[in-house]
Design a protein that fits this description.
The chain is of the alpha+beta class. The two termini are 42 Å apart. The chain has two domains: 2-156; 167-274, Rieske [2Fe-2S] iron-sulphur domain (Rieske Iron-sulfur Protein). The protein has helices spanning 2-6, 11-23, 29-34, 43-46, 48-60, 67-92, 97-125, 129-156, 167-171; strands spanning 176-180, 190-194, 197-203, 209-213, 227-229, 232-234, 241-243, 249-251, 260-266, 269-274. Strand 2 (190-194) and strand 3 (197-203) form a beta hairpin. It is 46% helix and 17% strand. It is built from nine helices and ten strands. It is elongated. The strands form two sheets. The protein has a six-stranded antiparallel β-sheet with strand order 1-10-9-4-3-2.
Length: 283
């Protein structure tokens, strides 16, 4: 897996596919596919239906008289695999290079599995159930390998994980000095420190000082290098947009809000403390 992550052989293909995925006219449905509405990536949830259907078909293949039921389940899995794949490609296009390399192999093995199940469905339709079982076994093997690769991406490479989850533990309780008010020009994101946490500070024209964790919850991008747009800050890496007032993820691909801090100014010095976690809104 380390060799796959470091190999540059597939990078040109990855760049071409990423361009196609990003160019697709998905509109607001892109955030739906990312799982912003769910609070975490939706792709792992969507793959349960095809995998469950195919696993169940494999079990029924071992039970006499269940050919029709197994045939139906193979078909259900094929239909369900399409939206799951679309969600997966949408997430993949916003990953780091090493994750994308593993992701291409993940997609290739799953595509091989889908092709095997298509052959299995066709054989079963023609009444060739023994051949259909063999194709199904080959498909289950392929998607099993694909699942292992997906697990590597999720748990080893942290693809889809909330990269800001640790902030409340590191920041600690209470108020922390983060600099003089004069250090923060109006309308310009400034990187600063709060305890052991990198933060981005934005002083608004109204006088309010907004503070968020600097590393984007999506993939750790530096928000302090981002753009201020309509009371939000946009990550320069993948375009996730967070509301400055409370860190809510207004647009994806980030599926988790950004840790936000309360502020106060005392004798020209700005202090901040972590906001209490409350349910966000989708204004």
């Amino acid at each position: 897996m380390d060799r796959i992550e470091s190999s540059e052989r597939t990078d040109r293909l990855a760049d071409a596919v990423r361009w196609l995925v990003r160019a697709a006219p998905l509109g607001r449905s892109r955030d739906v596919l990312h799982g912003r509405w769910l609070g975490h990536p939706v792709h792992p949830l969507m793959v349960q239906l095809p995998l469950g259907s195919w696993m169940s078909a494999a079990v029924l293949d071992c039970v006499p008289g269940q050919q029709r039921a197994a045939h139906t389940l193979v078909g259900v899995g094929l239909v369900a695999a399409l939206p799951a794949a679309v969600a997966g490609w949408t997430d993949w296009a916003e990953l780091r290079r090493p994750q994308m390399r593993v992701g291409l192999l993940h997609a290739a093995t799953n595509a091989a599995g889908i092709a095997c199940y298509a052959a299995s469905f066709a054989a079963r339709t023609r009444g060739r159930f023994a051949r259909g079982r063999l194709w199904g076994l080959a498909g289950l093997t392929a998607v099993g390998v694909g699942g292992a690769l997906g697990g590597h991406m999720a748990f080893r490479q942290a693809a889809g994980a909330n990269h800001a989850e640790h902030i409340p533990e590191v920041a600690g309780p209470g108020w922390h000095a983060i600099g003089a008010l004069s250090d923060f020009p109006v309308g310009t994101p400034v990187r600063s420190r709060l305890a052991d946490v990198s933060i981005v500070v934005v002083r608004e024209a109204t006088g309010a000082v907004r503070v968020l964790a600097d590393h984007c919850s999506h993939m750790g991008g530096p928000l302090s290098e981002g753009e201020i747009v309509d009371g939000c800050i946009r990550c320069p890496w993948h375009g996730s947009t967070f509301r400055l007032s409370d860190g809510w993820n207004v647009t994806g691909p980030a599926t988790a809000p950004q840790p936000a801090f309360e502020t106060r100014t005392t004798n020209g010095q700005v202090e901040a403390r972590l906001r209490s976690r409350v349910s966000g809104t989708t204004e």
